[in-house]
Design a protein that fits this description.
It contains no helices and six strands. It is mostly beta strands and about 90 residues long. The two termini are about 25 Å apart.
Length: about 90
């Protein structure tokens, strides 16, 4: 693991079936707003799992994209705070 430039820690673990990248207590863009902790698991069978542990950021965009940049015309955002799911919020 390494310290993130702005604080917190980023670690990478390769397991037998996946690579896991963990961002722990990384400060938000607005540093006074707090930190965020989340994890990305990339399984060798093609499955990708995003797990949001603690997000203090008041806005932002998270997920997967095609890659050439920009936001697709048919993009529909999800508001995780509106979900009735206590504790950890995970996207599979």
């Amino acid at each position: 693991s390494v310290d993130a430039l702005a604080g917190g820690e980023v670690s990478v673990l390769q397991d037998a079936d996946r690579v896991v990248v963990t961002y722990e207590d990384v400060p938000t863009h607005q540093k006074a707003a707090g930190t965020s902790s989340f994890q990305i698991e990339m399984f060798f069978n093609g499955v990708i799992r995003l797990t949001y542990l603690d997000l203090d950021a008041s806005s932002g965009l998270a997920g997967l994209s095609f890659g050439p940049g920009g936001v697709p015309d048919d993009f529909v955002p999800s508001d995780f705070t509106s979900y009735n799911t206590p504790g950890l919020k995970a996207a599979y």
